[in-house]
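Can anyone check this?
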Amino acid sequence: MPGTVLLLAASPVGKSRLVDAASVLPVLAAVPPAVLSGTDTANVVELADPLEPQAVLTRLRAVAATPGPLTVFIAGQLALDRRQHLPHLALARTTPATVRYTALPWQWIREEFRLRSPGSTTLLVDLHADAEAWGWLRTHALDSGRNNAVFGRIAPPPSRRTVAVPAYMKTIATILRSGWRPPVEQLHQQAFGRLGPDAYGDVVLTVPPAPVAVPGGFAPRPAYRPERPRPQTPDGGLVGAGRAPQAPAVGPPQPQDPHAQITAAVQAGRHQDADALALAHEQAAARAHGVASEQALHWSEVRADLAMFARDSARSCRIWLTVAETRLTAGQSPDAPTVEKAVDRAHHQWGQVRDKPRAQELGALLAQLRARVPGRRPGALENVQKQLRELQATPF
């Protein structure tokens, strides 16, 4: 049965752009459709920097309705809307203030593929998260549907005034240009094996395909009406539909979420204030629950990310190292996901440290940890040791 391939690359134009997503499309387009799909023949649909979420939804519905295997390649930028704090794929016109109206809700992707046959849909994803979305990923998983195989990565925000490239997706395309497509799990592993140390801190997506697939990829669906983007007035309000404005319900004031306060401080460039607030919560949680409690460690991880947003890679690395050591001392296994995540994030931040003495100091600590927590990707300890030797040989 013929397969279907959707190539979707989207990122904002202007200052909001974190990744040049569309740069991967020429590389993917050079791969034969049958190799992209893993079937004898395949039809390819391409979307490059689309403007409107409704236009993307139309294409999603079209490919979701096709029988047979469906492979979706998504490169782009992950953002949160400010009202519901839900993940969106940023489109060409998206800005931080207009995510809810100009970006594609990730739940639309999940819902459109929800009723396809288990095992018939594969998503290969290469996303860069903005600061708010990266913080959200600390406590949430990106839900792409339980019947879909999902492989890829979500990278943290790049350095200021830097536009990243979808390196994972370009590596996937390079492997496929050989003319042979390995099983998707193997393809994913090969791609990550070729990425450099900058990818150690990425969120890795590995949801294997469902074990059973029935003939045909499409099942009739009930009517699904996603919330349409709504026009805004110049002051940011919504244009009404003939209704008189209603007074808001009056109730007791709700305590403000400290995460929202921290996010607001980061957005305003008040990084010290954000860290001070997180530190106060970390210390309070340590007093109430213990230094090694999840409550306290959560705020430690928040502070590590805040240091990253403030471009203080050395401090971020040091905090992640402390988190990993605390978890290990508390008896967590070296292969526990929370321990591996802390060491991977420390490794990523260490690679950004430009001060040689601090890089040497932190690298020695990281090497000791890597000997105990090698992580899921081969060669991590060797990478640290190699960079330490290079640092030693490099004059100040």
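Reply from J.R.: I decoded it. The first strand starts at residue 3 and ends at 10.
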